[in-house]
């Protein structure tokens, strides 16, 4: 008996979108004399029936998500048994599938303290739709401040001080996102809807005093001066 070699190779779907399916095909150069069991490096198992030269298995591609993913998936033959061959030689060449991202949008939104007293603290919170990966997300605000959302987190905050004066009433304190950057998202966008904080008055006292020219000659003029401790609104 001369020893005949039977080669076993592995191929895969060439390209697939996130969340799709990859078909792996094991191919023999000679028909199997008994079932051949082919175990792949990803744990999948292919059976080639007796009398056949090919067998297949279908596995899911990486799931669809909001992140930029690796561009390919590889698998190799780990073991091959059966077939009643004189010399079965599995290929070590990996089967490669290109995985294309489906573009999912992730939005960053801004919220603010609903109310704050004059001179009190206003907290702005930026929230992203999925945990940050790769690098921190920087959120730039219209008031010149910025918020950092760290890797692994979905929120970040920054504080500012509400205006304080001696006048009655305040216009609402508004802010908005002007720009977002960072992270490993396929498509990161900002919700630029303004947020508003109502500033409530704390009672400040304004004093009014009167002074006059200290001395004047008969027939001269006296100047009276009224003075406020805070500027008039």
From TrEMBL:
Tell me one Pfam family matched here: LapA
Ranges of residues in domain LapA adhesin: 4-102, 104-202, 204-232
InterPro entries with a match to the protein in the record: LapA_adhesin_dom (IPR046779)
Name the domain of life this protein comes from.
Bacteria
Q: What is this protein called?
A: LapA adhesin domain-containing protein
Organism annotation? Pseudomonas koreensis
């Amino acid at each position: 008996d001369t020893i005949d070699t039977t080669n076993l190779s592995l191929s895969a779907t060439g390209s697939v979108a996130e969340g799709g399916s990859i078909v792996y095909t094991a191919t023999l150069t000679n028909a199997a004399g008994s079932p051949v069991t082919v175990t792949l490096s990803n744990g999948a198992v292919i059976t080639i029936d007796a009398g056949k030269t090919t067998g297949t298995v279908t596995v899911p591609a990486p799931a669809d998500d909001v992140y930029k993913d690796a561009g390919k998936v590889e698998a190799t033959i780990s073991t091959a048994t059966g077939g009643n061959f004189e010399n079965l030689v599995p290929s070590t060449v990996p089967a490669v599938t290109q995985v294309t991202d489906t573009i999912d949008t992730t939005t960053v939104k801004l919220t603010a303290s609903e109310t704050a007293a004059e001179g009190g603290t206003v907290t702005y919170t930026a929230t992203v739709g999925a945990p940050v990966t790769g690098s921190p997300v920087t959120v730039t605000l219209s008031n010149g401040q910025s918020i950092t959302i760290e890797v692994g987190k979905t929120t970040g905050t920054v504080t500012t001080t509400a205006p304080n004066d001696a006048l009655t009433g305040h216009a609402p304190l508004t802010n908005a996102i002007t720009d977002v950057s960072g992270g490993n998202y396929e498509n990161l966008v900002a919700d630029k809807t303004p947020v508003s904080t109502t500033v409530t008055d704390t009672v400040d006292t304004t004093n009014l005093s009167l002074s006059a020219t200290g001395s004047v000659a008969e027939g001269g003029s006296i100047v009276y001066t009224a003075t406020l401790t805070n500027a008039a609104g």
